[in-house]
């Protein structure tokens, strides 16, 4: 089962970044195919907490995040987008100092972040605890529904006539012109390849004998049953240990980067009750009325990173025709945009903003 | 607070109860946890303490014997206990247990899951009308509180349970409007050889049917309920002959008991890393497990209907096997019982499960407007639309439409949804796995899951890179 004409590009990984790149290169006239070991958008793209907050973005990535935000807004209802504004809370003087220092830098980088007085916070969020010491606000913040990622991009790929294969794990890659990818659904041939497999980039690149220094965090998210209205905006915490939002259907989504267990190589991660408990406790501390909500589900997703916590976006070192895209801190927000940049680069165009050389020295804090 | 035991058994039914007894008799320290107020599980369910006396049944006698044996044993019983999380922590299992409004941890070196079964009801128009309950749900009413589902009841569904429920309604003084079963007399006749090994159970079944026939209760073989009438409460049903263009006949009733077989509760085993296989004659997806309950996961054992629906008799025998296996694995010299009685009982149970399993002719009665996922009020048409735009798995339907994201976590809708995906995509059911199970094992109030919290104990991480 070998196709006669190689694709211009095979994209391995059907998350936001892989799909966004596929759409861009197809617009530019390339033939593309998207391969995913599971379903489209069921990795980090589909299980993250959906927070679209400029307050938790890296300073140097802020221009990318602002453009990403704009793209999410355009996707709108199809991805459950809601621009609610977001508060980041500090409960101690130390946290207040940290909040002030960090959000000032982010505001300078272009995020419309302001510091708000307690009376304004209470007017906006009457169910919040009165123990808040300081708060910042960003009107651009909001969320989308990450569960809809797979469905959204499946539709976009179909509309663009880009073939995709689900349940199609690439088990071997033969270098050459074209590349030959072994999958359970036959051999796929393509002139170029893009590795966009998120937390699975390391084992994927290893098929090409490239060692990418990719680590994975195992972030936990929990959701409650439907509740009466409790919070209107996205709630964050100065330490990053809490993100919280109430969806239109009343369910409350609780995250904050608490770590589950497992590695991408072992399959899916598992929730650790010992880290979920303080996460939920902190949510209840912020919004006491949440205590009576029943928690229905907790799950984990792998957030990939490299030692300098900047993206991998560019040619794969030492393998002509191979590219890599991933490890973007804030990848849910930035993914649709950086996928476009990656697509432009593969098309041979100058991207609107610089990419991030996967061959750089990761020990230096520069991009 | 954590207490450590040699073995924790989750589920105090025929399998879990017997496994606990055997292991405790071998000298091991066993804790037995169950959500119900007394041990017995579903089939051997205990009576409410408000009922002082009631005629005995074979189930109540078996249950009383188990409860008596447990009371006289060294097994520590934790009833009214809801296990909401299980994790492996070094060389032990850590269970988060909700009891008396508080969560605490129970730890054990070995874990036996005896999580039993749940009921499947194939959706038909009106099946969510108040007054419709499951067949197994009805048995819980009878056994625990001698309560009837209504004054005049249509009893419908597959396998032997439909006759047991109809017969119990009559014994407790209720009226059965009709018995409607998709099974044909031919199917029952073909199951006879497998049933011959359990003459006592076969005899009881014959008595149920004889009682109904003597009372001139209409028994509609090869039929199913195609619609339940009534807005706020049941007023009647229409029953149609399956596979034919039959306009059907109507029965007035104020209640309906309906069920299409039992499904093993495999989620806890799945979350702990046990592989699952598809076997329709055992109730669908079942965990990969040895007859004595051993799994490939170190220190984890499964027993009873949670391994595949074989019935209470087989479950009790398997519990004995599993208790002995765990005791041996933990270094106790114990008598290893023969597999033969379990095999005989399992053969009978398997034949009953094969008769009970969901079938396409009943699924065909679900209409586009029928609610399939009741937590999220999703109709069959909603599910089909999601499949039509490319969802090829239960996870994809769940992500796209929230089917399985409500309080039941997909326990009630996934069998129907998997069948719809199989029918639309042409894939066999064995390729449509259930959605990824998520903890908690049961919904748990946030304040109780959170437990005691001191803000100053919050482990402040290294700040994220700026």
From TrEMBL, chain A:
<protein>
    <submittedName>
        <fullName>Glycine/D-amino acid oxidase</fullName>
    </submittedName>
</protein>
<dbReference type="Pfam" id="PF01266">
    <property type="entry name" value="DAO"/>
</dbReference>
<dbReference type="InterPro" id="IPR006076">
    <property type="entry name" value="FAD-dep_OxRdtase"/>
</dbReference>
<keyword id="KW-0560">Oxidoreductase</keyword>
<dbReference type="InterPro" id="IPR036188">
    <property type="entry name" value="FAD/NAD-bd_sf"/>
</dbReference>
<dbReference type="GO" id="GO:0016491">
    <property type="term" value="F:oxidoreductase activity"/>
</dbReference>
<feature type="domain" description="FAD dependent oxidoreductase">
    <location>
        <begin position="8"/>
        <end position="344"/>
    </location>
</feature>
<dbReference type="GO" id="GO:0005737">
    <property type="term" value="C:cytoplasm"/>
</dbReference>
TrEMBL record, chain B:
<feature type="domain" description="BFD-like [2Fe-2S]-binding">
    <location>
        <begin position="371"/>
        <end position="422"/>
    </location>
</feature>
<dbReference type="Pfam" id="PF04324">
    <property type="entry name" value="Fer2_BFD"/>
</dbReference>
<feature type="compositionally biased region" description="Pro residues">
    <location>
        <begin position="434"/>
        <end position="443"/>
    </location>
</feature>
<dbReference type="Pfam" id="PF07992">
    <property type="entry name" value="Pyr_redox_2"/>
</dbReference>
<dbReference type="InterPro" id="IPR017224">
    <property type="entry name" value="Opine_Oxase_asu/HCN_bsu"/>
</dbReference>
<feature type="region of interest" description="Disordered">
    <location>
        <begin position="429"/>
        <end position="466"/>
    </location>
</feature>
<dbReference type="InterPro" id="IPR007419">
    <property type="entry name" value="BFD-like_2Fe2S-bd_dom"/>
</dbReference>
<dbReference type="InterPro" id="IPR023753">
    <property type="entry name" value="FAD/NAD-binding_dom"/>
</dbReference>
<feature type="domain" description="FAD/NAD(P)-binding">
    <location>
        <begin position="6"/>
        <end position="319"/>
    </location>
</feature>
<dbReference type="InterPro" id="IPR051691">
    <property type="entry name" value="Metab_Enz_Cyan_OpOx_G3PDH"/>
</dbReference>
<dbReference type="InterPro" id="IPR041854">
    <property type="entry name" value="BFD-like_2Fe2S-bd_dom_sf"/>
</dbReference>
<protein>
    <submittedName>
        <fullName>Thioredoxin reductase</fullName>
    </submittedName>
</protein>
<keyword id="KW-0560">Oxidoreductase</keyword>
<dbReference type="GO" id="GO:0016491">
    <property type="term" value="F:oxidoreductase activity"/>
</dbReference>
<dbReference type="InterPro" id="IPR036188">
    <property type="entry name" value="FAD/NAD-bd_sf"/>
</dbReference>
